[in-house]
Write a structure and sequence with these properties.
The chain is mostly beta strands. Helix content is about 5%, strand content about 40%. The protein contains 2 helices and 32 strands. Strand 22 and strand 23 form a beta hairpin. The N terminus is likely disordered.
């Protein structure tokens, strides 16, 4: 199919999407002039989490955990255009080698209630441990061997005994877990949304470990965003002055605002009462907050950065300076528009990823940037890297990636590219950068005839031609396609994968994504997850 035909098809597809009730286009609403302060509604310190129940939920829980995601297609990003960043350079094989490659948490760890629900895999790496989370479960692995040292356990178990939604256990709505490692304090952060069974109200449950041992005690916090407000698709990050987060807030019938929040990191590290300072942004959607990687922290006092898709030719960047002592002095400034080469969202932001052996297509989640927005301070320059899914001239989904430099000065794209692999669809990406400036980009990969949704990666070293990635390598080849699912969610393929850097050597990448081992012909999806470590020879 030629590029013009692709664009015409995308125009028709987007028009159909925007006509659906679940898709909400942008509305111009005034942003608030002052921050909102939210105090924790409860906090305490847990027992060592290894002392809580290890039982998985039994039977069918009285709730749906993965409801269809509301969309908010920004009008400026819904205009299909010819991609101007497609990589035509045929690169040599990716020079990074795979180290450990092992099984992660299976969907069965969620219990019977979550059969057929994609696992939202996420991971973080500490001094000696790797922690993975899926929908409702988490597990700890030994970093040197890949062997399990704890779990899988329900994330709700670590909130045993707390009041409200966070203490209701797996019989309520739990979703979108995030695990981070605060390398500046050697602590783990595990968060999850707990909601009412009808999805009407959500609370944020955050646990910050008391030590570098992920199986020990945690300082537990509950934050409420209001009645009939769902804090959907939470994304958290580590920054020296706060734990930053973003939420897509939804009311009973519509989108409310993007909510950018800063949590009081200093208080949460000690288990003291904590507050969050938040700014609602009704004109933005699915911000990612910057996560500080590497041994060199951001310059003292530098704000955190929030980035989202703005149009088919631009990103938006905001700067968040928080003042917990005097929250009124906190500032969320922007947008700063960053021009990028033109792109069209894969599948118009929705569903079109093919699979062998079935007409069922998969959701690209191309209406948003993919977790994480990774920050690194090289002393002589600062970089942000991030990716999202776009439509290519091959009529397939490709991985668009960016390196943004000088985010606290005059932000601009230093390099960018749309990575393709023949006519295969690439989506659900995750990108990061090591201390040598090497990048690793992981993704799901599929086609309609020969490749079930599998796990692969590419990358680049600083001496590669600008705006290019090396040829990809496979982490795991799957043998199954998604053909059925819970709550008519057969098109769902998770919400994110996760590429992170090991803080111990600042060279080893760790990646987690999902696959299906076998195609089932009935209403059941048996997702598995896979973890792998990667390293470039250029990083020592």
């Amino acid at each position: 199919m030629n590029p013009k035909a692709v664009i015409l098809a995308a125009v028709m597809f987007v028009a159909c999407l925007l006509a659906l009730p679940g898709f909400v286009s942008a509305e111009k609403k005034p942003a608030p002039s002052r921050p909102e302060v939210i105090y924790d509604s409860y906090h305490d310190t847990s027992l060592p989490v290894r002392e809580y129940s290890m039982a998985a939920p039994q039977g069918r829980a009285p709730r749906e955990v993965e409801h269809p995601r509301p969309r908010r297609i920004l009008s400026g990003a819904a205009v299909p255009v010819e991609d101007l960043a497609e990589q035509t350079y045929v690169a040599p094989p990716v020079s990074a080698t795979i180290g450990l490659d092992f099984e992660g948490i299976p969907n069965s760890a969620n219990g019977k209630a979550l059969e057929g629900v994609p696992p939202d895999p996420n991971l973080a790496v500490g001094a000696t441990q790797v922690v993975e989370t899926i929908n409702t479960a988490w597990q700890v692995f030994d970093k040197a061997t890949g062997k399990s040292v704890f779990g899988p356990q329900q994330i709700s178990a670590m909130f045993t005994g707390v009041p409200g939604l966070c203490g209701q256990g797996p019989t309520f709505f739990w979703t979108d877990p995030v695990v981070l490692y605060d390398q500046f304090a050697n602590r783990w952060i595990i968060s999850q949304i707990a909601g009412s069974s009808n999805f009407g109200t959500g609370n944020e449950c955050i646990a910050v470990s008391e030590s570098s041992d992920a199986t020990g005690k945690y300082h537990r916090y509950i934050f409420k965003f209001g009645n009939n407000v769902l804090n959907d698709y939470d994304k958290l990050s580590v920054w020296p002055d706060a734990y930053y987060a973003n939420y897509n807030l939804f009311g009973p019938t519509s989108f409310i605002a993007d909510d950018a929040c800063a949590y009081d990191r200093a208080a949460m590290l000690t288990g003291a009462k904590a507050k969050a300072v938040c700014f609602k942004n009704p004109n933005e959607f699915s911000f990612l907050p910057s996560n500080a990687d590497g041994a060199t922290p951001p310059p003292s006092g530098e704000p955190s950065f929030f980035v989202d898709l703005a149009s088919s030719t631009s990103l938006h960047l905001f700067r968040f300076h928080v003042d917990f002592a005097n929250p009124a002095k906190s500032k969320f400034t922007g947008p700063i528009t960053i021009p990028v080469k033109a792109y069209t969202m894969a599948c118009g932001g929705g569903t079109c990823i093919p699979q062998p052996g079935t007409k069922q297509q998969l959701d690209s989640l191309a209406d948003r940037l993919m977790f994480r927005l990774a920050y690194r301070n090289f002393t002589d320059h600062e970089s942000l890297v991030v990716s999202h899914s776009v439509m290519t001239s091959k009529a397939a989904s490709g991985a668009r990636w960016y390196e943004i430099r000088d985010p606290n000065g005059t932000p601009k794209v230093f390099q960018q590219g749309t990575f393709m692999h023949g006519g295969n669809s690439l989506w659900m990406g995750g990108i990061d950068m090591d201390k040598a400036g090497d990048m690793a980009l992981g993704f799901s990969e599929s086609n309609a005839t020969t490749l079930h949704p599998s796990i692969a990666f590419t990358g680049r070293v600083p001496t590669d031609p600008p705006n290019t990635m090396e040829s990809p390598a496979t982490i795991f080849t799957a043998k199954g396609s998604a053909t059925g699912g819970n709550n008519n969610s057969a098109n769902r393929w998770g919400d994110y994968s996760s590429m992170v850097i090991d803080p111990s050597d600042d060279c080893t990448f760790w990646y987690v994504n999902q696959y299906i081992p076998k195609t089932f012909g009935h209403d059941l999806l048996t997702f598995h997850t896979r973890l792998a470590s990667l390293k470039f020879p250029t990083c020592q």
